[in-house]
C-alpha cells in the first residue's frame, strides 16, 4: 500500500492483481488490438508518404497558369458560330506583383516562377521534341527536389547551360560537356552546354524535360520578362485543393492542385485512409467489449466484497471510481504492450521488406506521438468500457450483495 | 425503559416498520419496533427464522431504510438523511461482523483491518497502520498481519473481521451469527473475544443468533417473533458486573 495512493487506486490495482489470469488475458487482448492499430497506422502513413513522394516527385503542389483565352464575337451573341481559340504561350499578367502577394500567404512554403514551352533539341542528325523549362534553381528545388534527382554534373543553369534527362541524353548520344542546339517553334535558337544529367524517375519526363535558366527560356520562347506558370509548394500538401480554389477566385488564374491533376490517385489515398479508419474503429470497439465483459464478470464475482466495502462506509462514488480505474489501467497497460508489439512487428518488417540491395523498400517509423495517442485512446476506451460494469457495481444493494 | 438515560442511548428505535412489495400486496415484516440500546450493552437478538431479525439488523445497520418510524444512532435521526450521509454515518458509527466473515481476499489481514479507516480518510498513513496493528494484537493475530486474508483459517478470519469492525471506534457493533460458521471451541473463543472488547472499550454489541447457548451468555435478550418484539429481558445469569 503506497502512502500516496488513494483508496480507489489501491483497491483497483489489488483487484486486478488478484484476478491475475483474467487481467493478463484482457491486457494481452487490448495489446494485440492496439498493436494492430499502431502497426497499421505506421505502415499506412509510411506507405502513403512513400507513394506520394514517388508519384509527385516531379510535380508542384499547386501550379498557377494564365487564364484561357476566349474568342468573343463583337455582336450577335449566340448567332455567330465561334471556333474555340487555340491557346498560345502567354505570360502570367503582372506576375512579379502576384509573387509579392503570394509570399505573404502563410500556407505557401516556396514559390518558383517558370517559363516553359515546346522546342526541339538538335544534335547531329538527332532532332527531339522537348519541353524547355526555364527556372530559378534556388527556388525551383524547393518546389521540386531536382537537386535530389541529379545523377551527373551539377545543378547549375547559367547563361548557355542546360540540364537534360538521362533518356534524352541517350537519345541524342550526348553527355556532360556536350553542346546542344535548341530550336524554339518561333524560330529562335541557341546553343547550350550540357552541365547536368537528371533522373526524375519517369521515362517521359526524362526524355522531354530540359532545364535552362529563366532568362534563357524567356528569350527562346518569346516571353521576355514573363513566366508561363508559377509553381508552388505548400506546408501542408493536402490543403492544395482548398488553396487552389481560393487563388483562382482571387486572381482569376487557373490554379491546378496536385489533388485535381491526380484525382484518381488522391481518391485511392482517401479511400485507403477511410478503410483503415473503419478497421481502427472496429478494433477499438472489440477492445472495449473485451474490457467491459471482463469487468462485468469481475463485478459479479466481487459483489460480496463490494457489499462489504459499502457496509464499511465506501460511497457509491468510491466503488464507481474503483472499477472505472480498472478499465483505464487495463487500457493503459494494454496500449503499452501493444506499442511494444507494434514496434517489434515494424522491426521485423524492416528486415523482411527490403530491396535487392538491402535498403528498406520504404521507411516506416512508429512516431512517439502515435504511441501517446494510442495510450491515451486505449485508456479512454478502457474507462468508457468500464462505465457500465462500474455503475452496476456502484448500484449494488449492499444487503443483497452481502447475502450473496 | 426507553426513556431511561436517553443521553447514553447508542441506538433508539421508535415505531420502526418495514414492508416489502410481494406481488400486488404489501407484506409488512416489522410491525413497529421500539428498542433502545445503552452504551456498553451486550444484547442478543433471537427469534425463529423469518421473524424479521435480519431485516431489523439491516435497518439498524443503515444498509436498508425503514418504511415508517424513527431510528436514532447516537441521537442522530436517520430517516431524513441523504444517501451519502447515511453511508458516512454507517462507516463511522457502526461496525459489522458477519457470519461468513467476508474479508477482502485481495488484501492482507492488516490491510483488511485498515480498510474502514482507508475508506473514511481516502489515503493510507502511518497512524492507520499503527491502529490496525494494535487491533490485530488485541485479537491475538499480530503474527498473521501480513498474511493474505484468504490464507487464514475460519476462526482467524473472524478475529480479523472483529478487529476490522472496531477500527473506526464505532458506537455500535452488529454481529450477525458471528459464530455460525465455526466449531464449538472456536465459537467460544470468538464469543469471549467479543465480550472482552465489550468490557474493555464499553462498545455496544447487538448479536443476532440462533444459538440459545450463545444468547444465554448475553446481558440482555431481545426476542423477535413475526415482526414484533415478544420479550425483552435482562438475562439474570449474566448481569453486567457494575
Automatic annotation (TrEMBL), chain A:
**Can the keyword Membrane be found in this entry's annotation?**
yes
Cite the MacB-like periplasmic core domain residue spans from the record.
23-249
**Mode of membrane association:** Multi-pass membrane protein
Q: Which UniProt keywords apply?
A: Cell membrane, Membrane, Transmembrane, Transmembrane helix
In this protein, which residues make up the domain named ABC3 transporter permease C-terminal?
278-398
InterPro entries per record: ABC3_permease_C (IPR003838), Lipoprotein-release_system (IPR051447), MacB_PCD (IPR025857)
Q: Which domain of life is it from?
A: Bacteria
Q: Which residues cross the membrane?
A: 24-47, 281-301, 322-349, 369-388
Location(s) in or outside the cell: Cell membrane
Q: Give an example GO cellular component term for this record.
A: plasma membrane protein complex
Look up keyword Transmembrane and say if it applies.
yes
GO biological process, alphabetically ordered? lipoprotein localization to outer membrane
Similarity section: Belongs to the ABC-4 integral membrane protein family. LolC/E subfamily.
Protein name, please? ABC transporter permease
Amino acid at each position: 500500500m503506497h502512502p500516496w495512493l488513494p483508496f480507489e487506486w489501491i483497491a483497483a490495482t489489488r483487484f486486478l492483481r488478484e484476478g491475475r489470469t483474467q487481467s493478463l488475458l484482457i491486457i494481452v487482448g487490448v495489446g494485440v488490438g492496439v498493436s494492430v492499430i499502431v502497426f497499421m497506422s505506421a505502415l499506412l502513413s509510411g506507405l502513403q508518404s512513400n507513394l506520394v513522394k514517388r508519384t509527385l516527385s516531379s510535380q508542384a503542389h499547386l501550379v498557377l497558369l494564365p487564364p484561357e483565352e476566349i474568342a468573343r464575337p463583337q455582336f450577335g451573341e449566340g448567332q455567330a458560330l465561334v471556333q474555340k481559340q487555340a491557346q498560345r504561350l502567354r505570360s502570367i499578367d503582372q506576375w512579379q506583383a502576384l509573387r509579392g502577394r503570394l509570399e505573404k500567404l502563410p500556407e505557401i512554403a516556396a514559390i518558383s516562377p517558370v517559363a516553359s514551352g515546346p522546342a526541339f533539341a538538335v544534335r547531329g542528325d538527332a532532332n527531339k521534341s522537348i519541353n524547355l523549362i526555364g527556372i530559378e534553381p534556388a527556388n525551383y528545388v524547393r518546389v521540386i527536389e531536382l537537386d535530389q534527382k541529379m545523377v551527373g554534373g551539377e545543378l547549375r543553369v547559367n547563361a548557355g547551360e542546360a540540364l537534360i534527362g538521362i533518356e534524352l541524353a541517350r537519345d541524342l548520344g550526348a553527355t556532360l560537356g556536350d553542346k546542344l542546339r535548341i530550336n524554339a517553334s518561333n524560330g529562335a535558337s541557341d546553343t547550350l552546354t550540357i552541365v547536368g544529367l537528371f533522373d526524375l524517375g519517369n521515362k517521359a519526363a526524362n526524355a522531354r524535360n530540359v532545364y535552362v535558366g529563366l532568362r534563357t527560356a524567356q528569350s527562346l520562347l518569346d516571353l521576355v520578362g514573363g513566366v508561363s506558370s508559377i509553381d508552388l509548394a505548400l506546408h501542408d500538401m493536402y490543403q492544395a485543393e482548398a488553396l487552389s480554389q481560393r487563388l483562382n477566385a482571387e486572381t482569376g488564374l487557373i490554379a491546378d492542385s496536385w489533388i485535381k491533376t491526380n484525382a484518381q490517385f488522391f481518391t485511392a489515398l482517401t479511400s485507403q485512409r477511410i478503410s483503415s479508419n473503419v478497421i481502427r474503429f472496429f478494433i477499438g470497439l472489440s477492445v472495449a467489449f473485451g474490457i467491459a465483459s471482463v469487468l462485468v464478470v469481475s463485478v459479479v464475482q466481487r459483489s460480496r466484497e463490494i457489499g462489504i466495502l459499502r457496509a464499511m462506509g465506501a460511497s457509491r462514488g468510491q466503488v464507481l471510481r474503483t472499477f472505472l480505474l480498472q478499465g483505464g489501467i487495463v487500457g493503459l497497460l494494454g496500449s503499452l504492450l501493444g506499442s511494444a508489439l507494434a514496434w517489434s512487428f515494424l522491426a521485423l518488417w524492416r528486415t523482411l521488406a527490403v530491396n535487392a540491395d538491402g535498403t528498406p523498400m520504404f521507411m516506416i517509423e512508429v512516431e512517439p506521438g502515435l504511441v501517446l495517442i494510442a495510450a491515451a485512446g486505449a485508456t479512454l476506451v478502457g474507462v468508457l468500457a468500464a462505465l457500465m460494469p462500474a455503475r452496476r457495481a456502484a448500484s449494488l444493494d449492499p444487503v443483497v450483495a452481502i447475502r450473496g | 425503559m426507553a426513556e431511561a438515560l436517553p443521553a447514553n442511548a447508542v441506538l433508539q428505535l421508535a415505531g420502526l416498520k418495514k414492508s416489502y412489495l410481494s406481488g400486488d400486496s404489501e407484506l409488512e415484516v416489522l410491525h413497529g419496533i421500539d428498542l433502545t440500546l445503552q452504551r456498553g450493552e451486550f444484547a442478543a437478538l433471537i427469534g425463529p427464522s423469518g421473524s424479521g431479525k435480519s431485516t431489523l439488523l439491516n435497518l439498524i445497520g443503515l444498509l436498508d431504510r425503514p418504511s415508517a418510524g424513527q431510528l436514532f444512532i447516537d441521537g442522530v435521526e436517520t430517516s431524513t438523511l441523504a444517501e451519502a450521509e447515511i453511508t458516512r454515518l454507517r462507516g463511522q458509527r457502526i461496525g459489522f461482523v458477519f457470519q461468513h466473515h467476508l474479508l477482502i481476499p485481495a488484501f492482507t489481514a492488516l490491510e483488511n483491518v485498515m480498510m474502514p479507516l482507508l475508506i473514511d480518510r481516502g489515503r493510507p498513513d502511518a497512524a492507520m497502520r499503527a491502529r490496525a496493528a494494535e487491533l490485530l494484537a488485541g485479537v491475538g493475530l499480530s503474527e498473521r498481519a501480513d498474511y493474505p486474508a484468504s490464507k487464514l483459517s475460519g476462526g482467524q478470519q473472524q478475529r480479523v473481521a472483529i478487529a476490522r469492525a472496531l477500527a473506526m471506534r464505532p458506537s455500535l457493533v452488529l454481529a450477525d451469527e458471528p459464530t455460525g460458521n465455526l466449531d464449538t471451541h472456536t465459537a467460544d473463543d470468538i464469543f469471549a473475544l467479543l465480550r472482552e472488547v465489550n468490557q474493555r472499550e464499553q462498545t455496544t454489541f447487538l448479536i443476532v443468533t440462533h444459538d440459545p447457548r450463545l444468547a444465554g451468555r448475553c446481558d440482555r435478550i431481545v426476542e423477535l417473533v413475526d415482526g414484533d418484539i415478544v420479550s425483552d429481558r435482562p438475562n439474570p445469569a449474566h448481569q453486567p458486573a457494575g
